[in-house]
Design goal:
single chain; alpha+beta; Serine Protease, Human Cytomegalovirus Protease, Chain A; 12 strands; elongated; protease; Peptidase_S78_dom
């Protein structure tokens, strides 16, 4: 299964920051059935088994060292809905102010896909492969971040989970892309098939030699 954390943001995401001083917010973190800039589409029910019932940290710009609040997530028919509260810290108050001013008004979802396996993808034909890659049918929510205006996650970003230190939850990496991993898997499968063919021919040659003796 995939372990790389991916990010998506949507131009028409709506969320509301309370006018009161309680620091609450709510809104859409993800819409289903809409094609994003990566060419992928979240399908309804994709987070059904991938949401914790406990609080998540609201991060700023996907930086795990910059939490600005907490939230809980709920999957609905056509979207992922979050409700939460900003921390009563300077970072939390600043993030709330930036959401209200419009300098950092957008949300971006960090998640791990749980519906694809490079080994299985490598065995698919091109049509089935594209359908599996482009439609997100199952995923685990990792975090939601508040991001600055028009700063959607860049397609092709390579980030992964670092399992050691919490302070290094995300780290840039030169790990291969999904397409590269599938290509490597297809090359491995082809190499195994060639080996089996050589072994089959060698076995036939031995039988022929024995039979002709």
């Amino acid at each position: 299964m995939m372990t790389e954390i991916e990010f998506r943001s949507f131009e028409d995401i709506e969320w509301r920051v309370s006018d009161d001083q309680d620091g609450t917010f709510e809104g859409f973190a993800c819409r289903y059935g809409k094609r994003d800039s990566y060419g992928t589409t979240f399908q309804a029910g994709c987070f059904k088994r991938g949401i914790d019932r406990r609080d998540y940290a609201l991060l700023f710009m996907h930086d795990p060292t910059r939490p600005v609040g907490t939230f809980r997530a709920e999957e609905r028919d056509d979207h992922l809905w979050i409700t939460g509260r900003y921390d009563d810290t300077q970072a939390g108050r600043d993030a709330r102010a930036m959401a209200r001013s419009g300098s950092a008004p957008e949300l971006s979802v960090g998640f791990v896909r749980t519906d694809i396996d490079p080994r299985k993808l490598a065995e698919m034909d091109e049509e089935a492969y594209r359908d599996a890659v482009e439609n997100i049918r199952s995923a685990r929510l990792v975090e939601v971040s508040q991001i600055t205006a028009r700063m959607a996650a860049v397609p092709g970003s390579k980030l992964k989970t670092v399992r050691s230190a919490l302070g290094e939850l995300y780290a840039a990496t030169d790990a291969p892309t999904l397409d590269e991993r599938v290509r490597e898997e297809r090359e491995r499968i082809a190499a195994e098939e060639r080996l089996r063919e050589r072994q089959r021919r060698a076995a036939l040659l031995r039988l022929t030699t024995i039979g002709g003796a």
